[in-house]
Sequence to fold (526 residues):
Amino acid sequence: MNKGLFKFYPSLAAAAFCSLTGAVSLLTACSDSTSTAGVLTETESGQTASLTISVNTNLEVGAPSEISSRPRVALMRTANDRSEIIDSAVTDTNNEVTFKNVPYSDFSIVAMGMDPSGAVTFGNIITDKILESKELLNDTGFVETHLEINLYETAKIRLNAAALEIAPGDSVCITGTLSCGVYDKTAQESGYISIENIPASTYSDSYVDYDQVEIIHDGAARKDTVYWRVFPGDDRTANKNAVVDIVSEWSFTLPSISLLDSLQDKTLDSLIAPIPVKRHVTQDDYIVCAFGSTTTSDFMDKSQNSLPWSNSNYRGADSITTWVMLPPMDSAVTIYKVHGEIYPLAAATNRIQYSDSFASGDTLYRATFSEDSSLAIGFWIHAVGTEDSTRHSILSLGSESTGFKIAQCERNAEYVCSRIYSGLDSAATDSVIYGKAKILDGERHHVSFVIHKKHLAIAIDGETIHDTDLKLSSEFYGLSGMLVGDYPLENLVVHSFGSYIRKDGEKDWTRLKAWLKAFYEMQKNN
Fold:
């Protein structure tokens, strides 16, 4: 066996190895004939052993005639952040190949088959990590020295170029494979790097998890981490954390808000928008375990960065609403709903703690804001105040020593007042009424209530009616468990703000007021 099966293409010499396109370039290494990079020495390898691979061409690909010639197999290793070919062979008449010096670590074996047209369409990959996970490789060597593999259809991904730090002409290769893409003119124009002929099956699994790529720039390689699970026949898009199908998209336009005119930076960050879906859905369509190892559904921006989003709010048997935290926008943005195996990053955050409709007496147990000292609440209420001796509550947190309460005003049944119980020994602070507003008048109104750091803002139907700085005890920020009062609340969203809500150099809270106005405008017709 020898490296001669792997032709050298000077035009792709910057890559550790090249894409496979047709019979001639099947299993190609980008190293010249005088290089010894692929020669495995005892000093470099440590222990080695013989390993025979039997390639089953019948089980998964149908009739044997679908493969026009015997499969070809490469033994590879990873050194200096790039994958190299140690040895290669065409399988014998029994569809077997034996490599006599397989290292115990940092190796992979890639098998490829071609269809009658000469295109690479079937593949399999075995690595030391995979064999270790199957308990077929340990410190003493290979438990089995004869392994049978099945060839499955290979995969293709379109890698979002914005996901990696790359320059024109760079190559991106999946570690341990012969699968690469080039950031050429076509990729620069489309924004996506095409990587084809990706092995999508391994020793006994009909999928492969890849965790690393190699970026080749001016002959030097560096590695980057990815979280990719590919399946046979995949033709999907990818970023660093997911390989997905884009199933839906939505465009949002920033409402016209005069408050932004006075700001130098007119971008609003992390607006929360509702996405109603008026069709029958099951919980599995949108709800995912955001704290597991992978998710199956997510929302992403145009660069395929995950966006925080809420658990779905069921509006009835035939529709749901999902709330998504949008990327920064100064005019319009487009977001995408995707399905796939997604490493949970932003999708697993608690930036949107609740988004639901609640009945009287419900408690939101996880509504705490001690981590970032920021609590933002928005809800809709449609109710009529009653003239009786009871001061009906709308929403409360904590107690009358430390917390807040939004409730019916004492002297007018249609008006609502807010009180802040600071936790300090200050009766004057606790007796102040904030944000008196007429909202129990039989009309539908939206209420925003924000305590960010020590600043209070209250907005009714998008208009800020009260904002002021507060004096609060440290215990105030550790409160948890909001209680819905005597009226049902619709589309209650609990979230938190980051530093973007008041940027460096801004001396007032105009940006927060603009955000609350936009938040209202983007949901008032839903």
Observations:
- Residues 2-45, 59-65, 283-293 have pLDDT under 50 and may be disordered.
- Residues 510-521 form the longest helix (12 residues).
